[in-house]
Amino acid sequence: MSLSKPRLTFSQIINMNVGFFGIQYSFGLQQSAVNPIYDFLGASPDEIPLLNLAGPVTGLLIQPIIGALSDKTWHPRFGRRKPYFFIGALLCSICLFFFPFSSALWMAAGLLWILDAGNNTAMEPYRAFIADKLNDEQRPMGFQTQSFFTGLGQTLANASLFIFPMIIVGKTGAIPNWVFASFFLGSVCSIGTIWWSMRTTPEIPPTKEELEKMEKEPFSLMSPFKEIPDAIVNMPKVMWQLALVYLFQWYALFCYWQNSSKSIALSVWQTSPAENPKLYEEAVSWAGLVNAWYNVVTFLTAFALVWFVRKSSPKLVHFSCLVLAGLGLLVFPFIENKFLLFPAITGFGIGWASMMGIPYLLVVSKIPKERYGVYMGII
């Protein structure tokens, strides 16, 4: 790639990240709507963790593989990262369309695996896309713009779980009809926003030297399986430090996402899916509103964190945000008043704004540009 990167305007940074909105709408539905669908289809609480293995497993495998592949990809028309955006978004849109038609647990679980693979295929190159396009000064804004669209996309996804049940009634089989509207909207957002970013944002072509290096190392589907182990062995120190943080961070995140609806149902409504399905549906709708709120906090604070990073340090800002998130999760399951859930989850929203941007800012200056994809995937 060229040595000097042109400075982008704020609107150009927004345009290049619009696709993240659709990806995160899809993730928002995964976090808040998929587990209730499992409940509606008769899953027992002990089955939920196994049914959700798609998320961590596809993230662990797909992201570094796609990252390594995109590092070795270049096409004069389609670019380096964009082909993976498009393929991933297309898979997401197809799966989101068919997900509400799930008539059995095996069908819903199978679609979740494909949906997660699509989400990770589209999302991983987006991190490297920021590193490719922006200079050191603009990268904080670039990564936190992704955090902004994370909050905005997931806000809409979660708000749909609260709004659509009020205007769309009835059921198709075991699935409430409002679920169809939420997923159909996600299907359109996924491919539509990615198309916009691809249309408005050109990629920076490789330099002559980089093209020659690519030609000497021909593209192969086996390349990632050689590249990833070598990249892990040579990871910079900051990535090893982040690895320990991520181990505990993502444990907490999945505990919350998998159990937030049931936690609210038990602590506020004193019910469960088996005891009172109708009351549980109310709890699911309220959980959608609570999750929408923490994502509102995320997109409201995302750009503010850019200022704090510039005035302080990324490490201190990230640490402070994680402490706020931890305190929010600590008190959440003990709250019996449904309105008090909102101040409790506010800290989580601030932490989520940091998690979606600052870790990438911490490592991007420490990794070689020819490995942006694979290292962003490992993170």
Please characterize this protein's 3D structure.
The protein is mostly helical and 379 residues long. It has a single domain, classed as Growth Hormone, Chain: A (Up-down Bundle). It is 75% helix and 1% strand. It is built from 16 helices and two strands. The protein has a two-stranded antiparallel sheet. α7 runs antiparallel to α12 (277-311), α7 packs antiparallel against α14 and α11 (237-267) runs antiparallel to α12 (277-311). It starts with 9 loop residues before the first helix and ends with a helix.
* Secondary-structure element string: HHHHHHHEEHHHHHHHHH
* C-alpha Rg (nearest Å): 20 Å
Number of helices, where a helix is a run of at least 4 consecutive DSSP H or I residues: 16
Approximately how much beta-strand content do the residues carry? under 5%
Task: Tell me the CATH topology.
Answer: Growth Hormone, Chain: A
Query: What percentage of residues falls in helices of 4 or more residues?
Result: over 70%
Report how far apart the termini are.
Answer: 23 Å
